[in-house]
From TrEMBL:
One of its GO terms (biological process) is pantothenate catabolic process. Its cofactor is Mg(2+); FMN. Its EC number is 4.1.1.36, 6.3.2.5. The lineage of its organism: Bacteria, Bacillati, Bacillota, Bacilli, Bacillales. Residues 11-224 are annotated as: Phosphopantothenate--cysteine ligase. It comes from Peribacillus saganii. The keyword Metal-binding applies. This is Coenzyme A biosynthesis bifunctional protein CoaBC.
Length: 224
């Protein structure tokens, strides 16, 4: 129906930061609060979708009617995202996933030593890339791009490299956009080469625009 255009659709949203543990008391993370991803999950549920929200550690409660899967590390988020993918109609990857994780996890607290310390990091697996590789024709894959410069170049690069249908780019250095705020300023890049530059809006309104695009793509795609 018009009010519930995503009824019967399975939508997976990832949100929040990941935490990469160094030892029992320390981790590497980022500034994501989950606001953007939770707004998407709430909006998808309001549009009638069955929503799975895969979330890193955040302080906000799960939106009503959404099934939540809590994870901590990039590796855990990878596992859950790949598990959820085969039955998903669309995936929106809002999470700020760590690109690097400590090469070694120390079971005991690392003690202070004189002088400087070097922390060895290794690459995490790229979830968006893995989903892009497995994507079927009827599925819609949306990535985000958190950039501090060259939005166009980096977003279009991600769109192509990761086989995504849409990239939602935000410049996280602009006030009113990115981490922690209740608003965002995004540019949406689509596979057909088109680009939508949106003004500052609440994250809930941004979520609505993204999901309206996802709905149009799902309805335009041929089911296998
Ligand atoms: O949570 P908020 O405080 O509301 O902040 C919102 C936000 C700034 C986190 C959000 O708007 C945003 O930009 N999310 C993407 C953050 C990010 O990690 O961007 P990226 O350019 O590093 O990654 C690009 C894409 O690849 C993302 O869809 C990311 O989920 C994905 N990725 C990244 C690394 C990795 N190992 N696997 C991935 O799938």
């Amino acid at each position: 129906t018009a009010a519930k255009p995503l009824a019967g659709r399975n939508i997976v949203v990832t949100a929040g930061p990941t935490r990469e543990k160094i030892d029992p008391v320390r981790f590497i993370s980022n500034h994501s609060t989950g606001k953007m991803g939770y707004a998407l999950a709430r909006q998808a549920a309001a549009l009638g979708a069955d929503v799975k929200l895969i979330s890193g550690p955040v302080q906000i409660p799960a939106p009503p009617g959404v099934s939540i899967i809590k994870v901590e590390s990039a590796a855990e988020m990878y596992e859950e995202a790949l598990k959820a993918f085969p039955t998903a109609d669309a995936v929106v990857k809002t999470a700020a996933v760590a690109d690097y994780t400590p090469a070694v996890y120390h079971k005991q607290k690392v003690k202070k030593q004189p002088g400087s310390q070097v922390l060895e990091l290794e690459r995490t697996k790229d979830i968006l890339m893995a989903l892009g590789n497995e994507k079927q024709q009827h599925q819609v894959l949306v990535g985000f791009a958190a950039e501090t410069e060259k939005l166009d170049e980096y977003a279009i690069g991600k769109l192509q490299r990761k086989n995504a249908d849409m990239i939602v780019a935000n410049n996280v250095t602009v006030s009113g956009a990115g981490f922690g705020t209740d608003t965002n300023i995004v540019t949406i890049y689509k596979k057909d080469g088109s680009k939508m530059e949106l003004p500052q809006m609440s994250k809930q309104q941004v979520a609505k625009v993204i999901l309206d695009e996802v709905t149009a793509m799902l309805n335009g795609n041929n089911r296998p």
